[in-house]
Amino acid sequence: MKICVKCSCIVLQKTFELFLDKYLSDENECDFVVTDDTENTQKKAFLVGENSAYLKIPFSPEQLKDALSEFYFTIQNSQNFSVSSSLESQILEKFENFKAEILEILRKNNA
Q: Is there a domain that residue 73 lies in?
Protein backbone atom coordinates (compact mmCIF):
# COMPACT_ATOMS: atom_id res chain seq x y z
CA MET A 1 0.00 0.00 0.00
CA LYS A 2 1.54 3.29 -1.16
CA ILE A 3 0.03 6.46 0.27
CA CYS A 4 0.55 10.14 -0.44
CA VAL A 5 -0.53 12.65 2.23
CA LYS A 6 -1.76 16.07 1.07
CA CYS A 7 -3.59 17.98 3.79
CA SER A 8 -4.41 21.67 4.04
CA CYS A 9 -4.16 21.41 7.82
CA ILE A 10 -0.50 21.24 8.82
CA VAL A 11 -1.30 19.36 12.05
CA LEU A 12 -3.12 16.63 10.11
CA GLN A 13 -0.33 16.52 7.51
CA LYS A 14 2.34 15.96 10.18
CA THR A 15 0.17 13.47 12.09
CA PHE A 16 -0.39 11.33 9.00
CA GLU A 17 3.29 11.51 8.06
CA LEU A 18 4.17 10.27 11.55
CA PHE A 19 1.56 7.47 11.66
CA LEU A 20 2.05 6.34 8.05
CA ASP A 21 5.80 6.66 7.74
CA LYS A 22 6.39 3.24 6.16
CA TYR A 23 3.58 3.69 3.60
CA LEU A 24 4.49 7.17 2.30
CA SER A 25 5.05 7.68 -1.41
CA ASP A 26 5.01 10.38 -4.09
CA GLU A 27 1.64 11.29 -5.54
CA ASN A 28 2.74 9.92 -8.92
CA GLU A 29 3.51 6.48 -7.45
CA CYS A 30 0.83 6.20 -4.75
CA ASP A 31 -2.28 4.01 -4.73
CA PHE A 32 -4.34 6.82 -3.19
CA VAL A 33 -4.07 10.16 -1.38
CA VAL A 34 -5.01 10.86 2.23
CA THR A 35 -6.40 14.38 2.32
CA ASP A 36 -8.67 16.79 4.13
CA ASP A 37 -9.56 18.51 0.83
CA THR A 38 -10.59 16.55 -2.28
CA GLU A 39 -9.51 19.40 -4.55
CA ASN A 40 -5.88 18.65 -3.63
CA THR A 41 -5.57 15.62 -5.91
CA GLN A 42 -6.57 13.87 -9.11
CA LYS A 43 -5.99 10.42 -7.54
CA LYS A 44 -8.44 8.38 -5.47
CA ALA A 45 -8.88 10.29 -2.23
CA PHE A 46 -9.24 8.99 1.31
CA LEU A 47 -11.01 11.97 2.84
CA VAL A 48 -10.52 12.76 6.51
CA GLY A 49 -12.74 15.17 8.41
CA GLU A 50 -15.84 15.69 10.48
CA ASN A 51 -18.21 14.66 7.65
CA SER A 52 -15.99 11.96 6.18
CA ALA A 53 -17.34 8.49 5.53
CA TYR A 54 -13.82 7.08 5.85
CA LEU A 55 -12.33 8.59 9.01
CA LYS A 56 -13.61 11.21 11.42
CA ILE A 57 -11.44 13.39 13.64
CA PRO A 58 -10.26 12.55 16.33
CA PHE A 59 -8.85 9.11 15.52
CA SER A 60 -6.32 6.67 16.91
CA PRO A 61 -3.44 5.15 14.91
CA GLU A 62 -5.30 1.83 14.95
CA GLN A 63 -8.51 3.40 13.63
CA LEU A 64 -6.50 5.10 10.89
CA LYS A 65 -4.75 1.91 9.80
CA ASP A 66 -7.99 -0.10 9.89
CA ALA A 67 -9.84 2.51 7.81
CA LEU A 68 -6.95 2.74 5.32
CA SER A 69 -6.78 -1.04 4.97
CA GLU A 70 -10.50 -1.21 4.28
CA PHE A 71 -10.26 1.65 1.75
CA TYR A 72 -7.31 -0.01 -0.01
CA PHE A 73 -9.14 -3.35 -0.13
CA THR A 74 -12.15 -1.61 -1.71
CA ILE A 75 -9.95 0.06 -4.33
CA GLN A 76 -8.26 -3.23 -5.20
CA ASN A 77 -11.59 -5.03 -5.54
CA SER A 78 -13.07 -2.30 -7.72
CA GLN A 79 -10.05 -2.53 -10.05
CA ASN A 80 -10.39 -6.32 -10.18
CA PHE A 81 -14.10 -5.92 -10.96
CA SER A 82 -13.43 -3.58 -13.89
CA VAL A 83 -10.80 -5.99 -15.28
CA SER A 84 -13.25 -8.85 -14.85
CA SER A 85 -16.02 -6.85 -16.54
CA SER A 86 -13.74 -6.03 -19.47
CA LEU A 87 -12.75 -9.68 -19.83
CA GLU A 88 -16.39 -10.71 -19.72
CA SER A 89 -17.32 -8.26 -22.49
CA GLN A 90 -14.42 -9.49 -24.66
CA ILE A 91 -15.52 -13.11 -24.21
CA LEU A 92 -19.14 -12.19 -24.94
CA GLU A 93 -18.11 -10.41 -28.15
CA LYS A 94 -16.11 -13.46 -29.32
CA PHE A 95 -19.02 -15.75 -28.46
CA GLU A 96 -21.49 -13.60 -30.44
CA ASN A 97 -19.16 -13.63 -33.47
CA PHE A 98 -18.75 -17.40 -33.19
CA LYS A 99 -22.51 -17.87 -32.90
CA ALA A 100 -23.09 -15.72 -36.01
CA GLU A 101 -20.55 -17.77 -38.00
CA ILE A 102 -22.18 -21.06 -36.97
CA LEU A 103 -25.65 -19.77 -37.91
CA GLU A 104 -24.32 -18.67 -41.31
CA ILE A 105 -22.82 -22.13 -41.92
CA LEU A 106 -26.11 -23.80 -40.94
CA ARG A 107 -28.11 -21.50 -43.25
CA LYS A 108 -25.79 -22.30 -46.18
CA ASN A 109 -26.15 -26.04 -45.58
CA ASN A 110 -29.96 -25.82 -45.31
CA ALA A 111 -30.36 -23.78 -48.49
A: yes
